[in-house]
UniProtKB/TrEMBL annotation:
Alphabetized InterPro entries for the sequence: Phytyl_CoA_dOase-like
Lineage: superkingdom: Bacteria
Keywords: Dioxygenase, Oxidoreductase
Keyword Cell membrane on entry: no
Name of this protein: Ectoine hydroxylase-related dioxygenase, phytanoyl-CoA dioxygenase (PhyH) family
Any single Pfam family the record assigns to this protein: PhyH
PANTHER family: PHYTANOYL-COA DIOXYGENASE (PTHR20883:SF49), PHYTANOYL-COA DIOXYGENASE DOMAIN CONTAINING 1 (PTHR20883)
The keyword Oxidoreductase belongs to this UniProt entry's keyword annotation: yes
GO molecular function, one term: 2-oxoglutarate-dependent dioxygenase activity
Coiled-coil ranges per UniProt: none
Amino acid sequence: MNFPLLQETYPVSDEAKAFYLENRFIKLKNVLSPEVIAHFNEIISKEVDKLNKQKAPLDERDTYGKAFLQIFNLWRENVEVAKLVLSKRLGQIAADLMDCERVRIYHDQALFKEPGGGITPWHADQYYWPIDTDKTITAWIPLQETPLEMGALEFSAKSHQIVFGRELAIGDESEVQIKKNLRINNFEHVIEPFDLGEVSFHSGWVFHRAGANQTDQVRKVMTIIYMDAKSKLKNPENANQINDWNTWCPGAEIGKEIDSPLNPVVE
């Protein structure tokens, strides 16, 4: 199904750009229509359901496993999902916020938090990415209206400025240590629900988390990670970055532009 909206530009105001530059996150309303969300909710849910049948019960998983069901690079598996992931509308917003000409896809990721699913601990995404620039951004796209009790994404405004905690993988330690440090530094903890059609964008180094899903419904979210189209592969700094190199940008060379077939430019 084709949705003209996905190829239309979204007006990112100068005020919005300034807010993102200062805080390294922003929530934008009416990015997607109810019709678009309903369509991709159905398609992405079917893909995640396949994974769910293979997962252990919640009480048998660790903190990370309880946080969400996740499935990657659906744009490579489903032509309909590719229309969303490679859409001009979302890519243009990402480029405007990062002040770059064009963006590439790093990878996409469906994140479904089951009823009773646990917290997503404090973390910074770019710990996992062997990318040589801070011009990275994730679009967090709820596939339903998302109240706080469902596990809406939370941000620590301006926290991209601090280095402590960047080296921590997502888990129990990151939740405790980063939470403590953010409190000491008095960064604003932003906890807000998401309206239907509202999409957030956050940088790779801003700290964020999500609460537990206390409802009887699945919290369904699709995410897309973008990077400046000119981004280069850096020498990996940890085992996770080596894994990401091999998985999400295979064949890319250190010091050169990341232009593998898995990292197309959004046109």
